[in-house]
Each structure stands twice: as C-alpha cells, then as structure tokens.
Amino acid sequence: MELFRKKSLDYMIRQASGKKSLQKALGAFDLTMLGVGAVIGTGIFVLTGVVAAKNAGPAIILSFVFSGLACAFAALCYAEFASMIPASGSAYTYSYTTFGELFAWILGWDLILEYGLACSVVASGWSAYFQELVGGFGIHLPALLSGAFDPSKGSYVDIMAVAIVFLLSAVLMTGVKESSRINDIMVIIKIGVVLLFIVVGIFYVRPSNWSPFMPFGFSGVMQGAATAFLAYIGFDAVSSASEEVKNPQRDMPIGILSSLAICMILYIAVSAVLTGMIPYTKLNVGDPVAFALRFVHQNWVAGFVSLGAILGITTVLFVMMYGQTRLFFAISRDGLLPKGISKLTHKTKTPTRSIILTWLMATVFSAVIPLNQLAELTNIGTLFAFIVVSLGVIVLRHTRPDIKRNFRVPFVPFIPVLAVLACGYLMVNLSKITWIGFLIWFAIGLIIYFTYGYRHSLLGSAEEQTPEPSRVTSEN
Asked: Is domain 2-464 classified as CATH 3.40.50.2000?
C-alpha cells in the first residue's frame, strides 16, 4: 500500500508555505495573462496550417470547437482542484492527494513529456517565423542550421530554436514577478497582432475556399481536433502557478476559465478567416498566418504579423517552460527526483536547477525532432493528464466531501465524465506511432520510479509521515 500513500491537504499547505516554497507574487490578471500567453500562439501561428492541409480542411473551425469543448470540461475540473490546493505541480500534485504516490509519479512523468515537448514544438514554430522575418531582409541561415534533423533537406539542427530556449531560460532566472511583467507586455502585442490579422484578412475571404468544407470527412475533423488540442493547453500551465499566487482560492479559477474563454473565441475567428483567404491545400507551411497574407499580396501586414507572431509565440514558450520548471521543482521537493533539482535561490526564490534542466530538455528536442512528431506526443500526454484530473474530481467528492471548495464543478459527475469521454476520444484518434512513443515513455517512467523515486520519496520517510487533515474546514 506504500505505492499509494497520499498527501493530506495539511501536508501540502505546509509545503507551500515552508522554507522550500516559492514566492507569492501573482494575481488574477497575471494568471489570465499567463493563460492567454500560453494558449494564443501555438495553434494560430504554428499548427493551423498543418491541421487544415492534412486533417480537416476548412472544417478546422469545428476541430477547434471540439477540442475547445473538451478543454472547457477539463478546465472546470482543474479550477476546482486549483481552488483547493495552493501548491505547485498542477495535475501531479492533485493526483498525489487523490490517487496516491504511484499515480502521482505516472502523471508527473506524463506532464514532463507534455511540457518538455510543448516547449520544443513552440520553439520550432518560433524559429520558422523568425527565419521568415529575417529572410525578408535578405538574411538566410545555412541549411544545416535552419531546421530539425532532416538529411533529405540538408538540415541537422535548428539553431534559432536553441537560441530562444536559452534566452527565455535566462528570463526565468530573474524571478516570477519580473518575468511575468515581460510576459504581460508580449501578450498585449500578441492580441493586437491577432486582431490585425482578423480585420485585414476578412476583406480577402472568398466563400468558395470553404468548399468542400469537410474534405477529409468527420474522422478528419476529429483527427484535426486531436492535433489542434495542443493549442488549448495553456490553462494547464496556469495551474502550475498556484503556489506563487497571493490568493489562489479566488484567483486560480478566474485565471483558468477566463483565459480559455477569450482564446476559444479568437481561435474560431482566425480559423474561419485563414481558410477563407487561401485554399486549405496550400496551408501546409510553418507560418500559415503570414503566408496567407502574402498570398493576398498584403506583404507589409505579413511582415508585421511575423514580428508580432514571434513575440506572441515567445509567450507560449515562456509559459510552457515556466510550467515545466515548476513541475520539476514539485517532483524533486517530494524526493521522487533528486532533491538538488528543487533548490531555490535565496533572493528571488527561483528554482534555478529546474530551469537549467528544462532548458536542456527543450534544447535537445527542439533542435533535432521534426514539428509534427513533437505535436502529437505533446497532445497525448496532455489528454491523459486531463482524464486523470477529471476522474480525480469525482473521487475526491466522494472520499473528502468535507474539503472547502472555493470553486465547484457544476453537475458532477456529468461534467467530469464528459471531459473523460471527450479527451479519451481524442486520444483514440491519435496515430499508432504516437501511442507507441507514449507507452515507451510510460515504461521508462516506471523504471525510474521503482529504481529511484520509491526509495527516496520524502512522504515515505519516517519523519515525514502525514497527519490527517485538521485545518481544512468543511464546506458547510
């Protein structure tokens, strides 16, 4: 039964307020900016073209609707957990108190895949837009440094992806308060760029480009939804900030749900305009938004959008890297990874070693692995996490009805069940090779847990045995 030992709420509150806790500096606005920063970017500026050309055609609009609804159900479940548990680690931490240590490790290892590969996906997209921008000024990188490993194209390493990962790692080193201010500025610019594209592009929409609307059938729409799902995972990273929020019980649900609502509206609008401007068959490019503007000879706008997109995608990468660093910190603090990883700086309470580890992981993946393979592996990890968190809401309602919940998922168990079914369906629509990669990662994680994590677990040591919750008040 030690494999399923659980953290109590008291234990997590002590962790989140003790010597090894993070600095509390964020509010509801900061969380919303983190959410919009993470959500708006990857889907619009990187994946829309690939999904439209290969999976859904103009029906990519429906792909974003379906994946957005699946995320909305899961977001409600995350909001309930975030209002109860003000500790770093997101779904990893939630499952520790609901299902026990083994499940927590499995989910934490899964989230390492999600965040690590998401960082790499976005870094690859950032590199494509940057090279497009400087190419307009006659500056071109050597082929061998211009993309991920692909000898047929003469590319071996994506040097610009490596550079941006290094730069943002340095920003994260400055502390959460300072780096969140930089994020706020870039998010405002990004929203302006998205609105500019919609306003300019709508005058070039040709309804004939929406026909046939569903060229790959409904199965193509759902495959597109499974891939486009990556675009919405920002609220998952927002939940990683719980420990650094001044009033997490109130602000976490606001940040999670408001950012998702804003972004879903923008995604649907951009998808409609993009596929109306240009035939979907031409959108299999790394920078579809700028490409569509060049297609209608709005080159000056395309250049401006490319510049704005670079800043916008930077915020996505920043939040994904932030989530990864806090995940490494939380798992290490629990002893399931080497404790040195969770060491904090004295002045800014920054987990510098977690940041360095995140930098190394994102650098390797973004430098050498092609974009489409990265995206699907990221999605399967995210979908699995959403399923576990949604089930966790149902379980904790039955096992701990006394816990105070500042936000409650409505219509339990129906909403969590819908989240499980929607996310499960999207998982089924991912490719076989993605499932094989996921299972291999899963097996590696179990080996690491049984050879290291189980024996070094802080919760398993005699001096860290957890008392029953006593300070958590009843809802009634």
From this structure: no
